[in-house]
Amino acid sequence: MLSGVLRSPVSFFEATPRGRILNRFTTDMDFVDARVFLPGKQAVQNTLLTLAKVAVIATQSPVVIAVTTVLLVLGGFAMSLAVKVSHKARFGDSLATSRVFQIVTETVDALSSLRAYGVLERFQRHYCRLTDETMRAFGLFTTCYRLTRAIASSAAFLVVLSTLLANTAFAGDGGPNPSSLGLALSAACSVPLGLMTLGIMLFSVLQMVVAFERCLEYTELSPEKDVGETWTEEKKAAVAESLAKWPTEGKVEFHSYSASYKPGILPNVLNNVTFTAEAREKIGVVGRTGAGKSSMVLALLRMLEASEGRILIDGVDIREVPLPKLRRSITVIPQCVLNHLRTKNIIITPKKLNRIVLPRVGCRYVG
């Protein structure tokens, strides 16, 4: 699942809230990895024990087999309805929990801005509303859980009642055999607890299937398109050998490069970009917010779809380089927003450097 998410295109992360991804890797993975084994084991154990007890009852009262069969059919139908409703409630609970995770992460990231604009109370009300939706879905889930337990206990008590009536009604002239009646009732009295436990365990296991389906969905995500998907093994080996020491210098060339986050849907964020950065040359990119500075870095990593043009690194078109090799060969230092107590000129320049020198140096690097 982690591999599927990491190999997904940028459009997946733009369309998927972070809270939903976080919910998959926390709540759903916890159900699959830690909680499904014990209920599954107990469900199998209780199934075998209950069948053995019903078999003991049937040796003394064969009529109980027919009663048990009818109860299993009716109870199975009622439980299937309860499980379907609980599945919907579980999906609703998961979606609501994802929204709660999303608003928490977004609020923490933008906490300073929210305080500055005085909108914390509005976000608190929104959080409380999402929490109420989560509680409503969880309440419906709990109701289905209790209904399943009530169905199992009712069926079990009907088994006990049918055992008692069968042994007394078909006893004959001499009355019921005390030993047979005692054995049948002893086995029947332990059926209610077994059936209630079995119903609870089956309900829990079936609910965890929902978490498994949600995790399985992320293992089948469409990965990014890579150039080596259609290559033969011989060509992959040849390309890997030719690119073993690439890149050696680090010369970067943009040739009439244009790119978009969603070609054909969104406009280009880079339009006809052409420049050459020589090996070991330091350059600076200047532009307003949204001008495409970060998009140029994403283009180097092929996280953007090129509309036209190409990018060369040491004379090699990056479209011909497999993605794992390309991204292992390029190092990117993420940009961080920092608040300095002193002026930027004093911090990032030597002490004796004039304040006017810094913009001149920047313009010289940009060209």
UniProtKB/TrEMBL annotation:
One of its GO terms (molecular function) is ABC-type transporter activity. This is ABC transmembrane type-1 domain-containing protein. The lineage of its organism: Eukaryota, Metazoa, Ecdysozoa, Arthropoda, Chelicerata. The chain crosses the membrane at residues 63-83, 150-171, 183-206. It is found in: Endomembrane system. Keywords: ATP-binding, Membrane, Nucleotide-binding, Repeat, Transmembrane, Transmembrane helix, Transport. Its main location: membrane. Pfam families: ABC_membrane, ABC_tran. One of its GO terms (cellular component) is membrane. The keyword Transport applies. Residues 1-207 form the ABC transmembrane type-1 domain. The keyword Membrane applies. It is a multi-pass membrane protein.
